[in-house]
Records
---
Amino acid sequence: NAGVTQTPKFRVLKTGQSMTLLCAQDMNHEYMYWYRQDPGMGLRLIHYSVGEGTTAKGEVPDGYNVSRLKKQNFLLGLESAAPSQTSVYFCASSYSLRQLTGELFFGEGSRLTVL
Amino acid sequence: KQEVTQIPAALSVPEGENLVLNCSFTDSAIYNLQWFRQDPGKGLTSLLLIQSSQREQTSGRLNASLDKSSGRSTLYIAASQPGDSATYLCAVRPRLLDNAGNMLTFGGGTRLMVKP
């Protein structure tokens, strides 16, 4: 049981390049989230999904796109990376609030540097 | 807008001491509150989750309490050990029926160091 797995764990990009972060969970969770963590800013929600085929904006969605084509996967895309997107990205998942408590489970993080 | 504050930002204690970490929030309309531990360079590990109807939750040497009316939660760690050294974060889930119920607000964390 792997829980929440993120790939890649590290990536260096040049300004303007694109990339996709993949999050996979094997707990059959309905809800999935992408956060970024920056020094002094704490954890901020980028986008989230409450089920397969659905996505919604979080607190800081600009510059990012997401897709949830399969229940177990949640992809975060950067179409044109900027230095301000240098951060540590965390994926999380939970059961829906109708099913259980909504306890969040996190991946190990993906460290992205944009030069 | 919900604001979550954790004081102190950093704490250093000798091994064996009992300690309390604080988490305060401004909007008492919460669904639940969750405490996490984060080791350097790692993800967040869930420690305890307290539903809004509960007053406390316990797991081993950890005890979390919730006082919704005063907007406070505490995480009590008994007989601290060097292995407890980490950053501890609390997160509040709002009591909302729509998708906004997924907009959790995190505190800035308390960085704990337990010295041998």
Note: The longest strand of chain B covers residues 30-38.
---
Amino acid sequence: NAGVTQTPKFQVLKTGQSMTLQCAQDMNHNSMYWYRQDPGMGLRLIYYSASEGTTDKGEVPNGYNVSRLNKREFSLRLESAAPSQTSVYFCASSSIGYGYTFGSGTRLTVV
Amino acid sequence: DQQVKQNSPSLSVQEGRISILNCDYTNSMFDYFLWYKKYPAEGPTFLISISSIKDKNEDGRFTVFLNKSAKHLSLHIVPSQPGDSAVYFCAVLPDTGTASKLTFGTGTRLQVTL
């Protein structure tokens, strides 16, 4: 049982480049989330999707876009990467209630 | 405006002793309070939770205490083991409805020494 799978695990981008972080879950969860983790800041919500076809902004959405491709997949796109977006990104999914399951993360460095 | 605060970025405890991790929150309307544990290069994993209608919840070596009047949450680990060394995040939920969003604290790095 894979749970939540994120790709890639590591990525180095140059300022201005674009990329998409992929996330897929196999638990039939309705809701999916993207968080970023920075030192001293904890995990902060970027975007979330309550259900297939809906997306909403979280606490720190600027510079990102998301797509809920289907019930399983929720991608995060950086259109023009900036050094401030250097972070570890976590995707999570949940059913009704508080059963969040997290992926293992994508470590992104923007130079 | 930080809704959830963990004022101790790190904590070192000897094996066998009690570890106490603390968390303060600002909004008295939160419904559920949770603790997550995170090892390096892994995602956070759920550890234990407590509803706002309770003041204590226990699961093996882990106990969470909720003091609503003080808006304070704590996690006790007894006895502490080297495998408990990780970063611990407290988190709050306003409710358990669809896509209820977790808000996390800044984390406390626990090191359990031999």
Note: The first strand of chain B starts at residue 4 and ends at 5.
